[in-house]
Write a structure and sequence with these properties.
- By secondary structure, this protein is an alpha/beta fold.
- The protein has a single domain (4-213), classed as 3-Layer(aba) Sandwich (Rossmann fold).
- It has six helices and seven strands; from the N terminus they run βαβαβαβαββααβ.
- It has helices at residues 13-27, 48-62, 81-94, 109-124, 166-174, 189-203, and strands spanning 4-8, 32-38, 66-72, 98-102, 141-145, 158-161, 209-213.
- The chain has a seven-stranded mixed β-sheet with strand order 3-2-1-4-5-7-6, with helices on both faces.
- Strand 1, helix 1 (13-27) and strand 2 form a beta-alpha-beta unit.
- Helix 3 crosses helix 4.
- The protein starts with a strand and ends in a 14-residue tail after the last strand.
- The mean pLDDT is 96.
Length: 227
């Protein structure tokens, strides 16, 4: 059903971490879905209703054909067995070839918990003789996008050129006005995201880039797409 499933702890994490890559994949006719694990609330300026409207707006900007929310608790996200079963069931239903999860080290506890949950659910999704709905499925790859909360500068496995899709990423993030108000003091979150994307773009000789990590070796069948 899906070529790639992006799993985000909160609405806006997918846009911040890899909004440009989502737009790029869709421009290449890949089917991309986003699964938000929580509704992201409470926050100082937001509400469940506001975040739902903002998420719908960002989804429209990214032209996503599939997006759902798993309904797990914000701030106290845990990789419980119940949550693992729920996520594994979604993986079996959507059958993605690639999973995307937050980088495994992060300042935000929800992001760390989300990564553990994704990795465990990926394994569970392939199990036979279990009570999970649907047919067993094991995504071939899991890649990790970087969050605004990450305070480390690690060597990524690869950087995606998002120069042609930077405006789409920026517009999708701007949809979350309750989280990133336009009157925020400088440097705002948007400014920091732009600076980071430009820096990663510079590392590959492009205007904007998004870094990704991998715990597993990445196989190449050739070198025609290397920058």
């Amino acid at each position: 059903m899906l070529d790639a499933l992006v799993i985000a702890p909160h609405p806006d994490d997918a846009e911040i971490g890899m909004g440009g890559t989502i737009a790029l994949m869709q421009s290449q006719s890949l089917k991309v879905g986003v699964l938000d694990l929580t509704d992201g609330e409470p926050t100082p300026r937001g509400s469940r209703e506001i975040r739902a409207l903002e998420t719908a707006a960002a989804t429209k900007v990214l032209e996503l054909g599939w997006r759902e929310n798993l309904g797990l608790p914000n701030r106290t996200l845990r990789a419980t067995l119940k949550a693992r079963a729920s996520l594994a069931s979604v993986i079996r239903r959507t059958r993605p070839r690639i999973l995307f999860a937050p980088y495994w080290i992060d300042a935000h506890p929800d992001h760390v918990a989300a990564t553990r949950l994704v990795e465990a659910a990926r394994f569970w999704a392939k199990l036979t003789k279990c009570d999970l709905p649907g047919e067993p499925w094991h995504p071939q790859r899991i890649f990790y996008y970087w969050s605004i909360h990450l305070k480390l500068v690690r060597q990524p496995a690869f950087v995606i050129d998002i120069s042609k899709h930077w405006d789409t990423k920026r517009h999708s993030i701007e949809c979350y006005e309750s989280q990133f108000p336009h009157d925020a003091p400088s440097p705002s979150v948007q400014e920091r995201i732009a600076t980071s994307a430009a820096w990663w773009g510079n590392t590959i000789g492009r205007a904007y880039g998004e870094p990704f990590s991998s715990r597993e070796p990445i196989g190449l069948s050739g070198f025609s797409n290397l920058l």
